[in-house]
């Protein structure tokens, strides 16, 4: 079965849908590979204007890394896994076309990092959003904290990370992380409506604005901070606190 569905529509939107509803759209290596391939295609293809990332079903946008696969990784292997996705999120962050996370359900852990790397976050009313990594004895491991601290005011970003709680869409809207709260009757159409002013611009204009917007993230200084975050998380990955948190999640689920 496909782990992600990629559709290219008439308006120039590429829809990338993580398709693992039975795992609450958790990201394994296959999802990473497919996302990497899609980002490269969007970058190159002049018929594509925007990338929208979402998840299958009503339950989850994305539950982060696939813990059933990644829970046993030790520091060095964990670092490789985190760096692999970190590089993908960095290319998403600096993509030359506008990007949207269409949050159709719960977004937790790495799911929030994936959404943070997008330019806009539109979320269905009632969803829960949580940078819960702190409660798992780790930090964000895909560069998400560095991105959050770039995109939100310092106090809001730090509050979200230190609380490590599942927060309401409304609260995340107040913090400026969610840009539009959607009713959810037809998420795609609501999303398309919000994107229509952007889609009326040419690809050259979209590319030019994205280049201006993302220039600051192409410096060595930013990349060093981004990948240092990943190394810190890798160190915590093998800690007793993290192992206990994951064991307790699997006992419950
Ligand atoms: C690796 C990077 C790191 C980072 O940088 O942040 C991470 O992302 S660590 C992962 C952080 N994510 C989590 O800890 C989320 C764990 N999941 C949940 O808290 C909940 O599942 C949910 C997302 C809130 C949904 O709750 P609910 O609707 O009640 O579903 P269940 O809990 O019953 O789950 C159904 C099914 O899905 C499996 N599942 C869920 N999340 C994951 C996951 N991240 N990895 C692997 N599998 C996951 C869960 O085990 C259930 O499976 P079955 O028991 O086989 O049905």
From TrEMBL:
Single biological process term from Gene Ontology: fatty acid beta-oxidation
Gene3D superfamilies per record: 2-enoyl-CoA Hydratase, Chain A, domain 1
Top-level lineage group: Bacteria
Catalysis performed (reactions): (2R)-ethylmalonyl-CoA + H(+) = butanoyl-CoA + CO2; (S)-methylmalonyl-CoA + H(+) = propanoyl-CoA + CO2; (2S)-ethylmalonyl-CoA + H(+) = butanoyl-CoA + CO2
Molecular function terms from GO: methyl/ethyl malonyl-CoA decarboxylase activity
Subcellular location: Cytoplasm, Cytosol
One of the record's GO cellular component terms: cytosol
Keyword annotations: Cytoplasm, Lyase
The keyword Lyase appears for this protein: yes
Name of a matching Pfam family: ECH_1
Protein EC: 4.1.1.94
Enzymatic class: lyase
Protein task: Decarboxylates ethylmalonyl-CoA, a potentially toxic metabolite, to form butyryl-CoA, suggesting it might be involved in metabolite proofreading. Acts preferentially on (S)-ethylmalonyl-CoA but also has some activity on the (R)-isomer. Also has methylmalonyl-CoA decarboxylase activity at lower level.
Similarity section: Belongs to the enoyl-CoA hydratase/isomerase family.
Name assigned to this protein: Ethylmalonyl-CoA decarboxylase
Record lineage: Bacteria, Bacillati, Bacillota, Bacilli, Bacillales
